[in-house]
Design goal:
The chain has one domain: Nucleoside Triphosphate Pyrophosphohydrolase. 18% of the residues lie in helices and 46% in strands. Strands 1, 2, 3, 4, 5, 6 and 7 form a 7-stranded mixed beta sheet that branches. The protein is globular, with a radius of gyration of 14 Å. The protein starts with a strand and ends with a helix.
């Protein structure tokens, strides 16, 4: 089975009430169109996962991020490929999160994490994110 190695950004911030929020995006194309995911993409040859993540977020969202700690590496078998996804905590350095490839986006609080229809690989990360989101 083909292995696809990708990176995903769990972009965190605080809302006006001081609660932690994370950024989720809705796919606008492909087999999994309309599913919710953490933004990111494929690692290109010669890139570190962190470099790939910074490049992908700049390409997809016109935003510069800082890449923090690895949350987890998700291994997930889709029908036609195996996904290996390194997921990192990230924060915005500069930019306004302009949607260039996604259909929609939302900032979610800990309590709202189950309100979107996550893609199968991304949903496996939700409990870990919920446990580690600060109040």
């Amino acid at each position: 089975m083909k292995v696809v190695k990708v990176v995903a950004a769990v972009i965190k911030a605080q809302n006006d009430s001081g609660n932690s929020i994370i950024f989720a995006t809705q796919r606008g194309y492909g087999d999994y169109k309309d599913g919710w995911e953490f933004p990111g993409g494929k690692i290109e040859e010669g890139e570190t996962p962190q470099e790939a993540l910074k490049r992908e977020i700049m390409e997809e969202l016109d935003t510069e991020i800082s890449v923090g700690d690895l949350i987890d590496t998700i291994e997930y078998d889709y029908p036609t490929f195996h996904l290996s996804m390194d997921c990192f905590w990230c924060e915005i350095v500069e930019g306004k999160l302009v949607l260039k490839e996604h259909e929609a986006a939302k900032w979610l609080t800990k309590e709202e994490l189950d309100e979107v229809d996550w893609l199968p690989a991304d949903i496996t990360l939700i409990d870990k994110i919920r446990e580690n989101m600060w109040e």
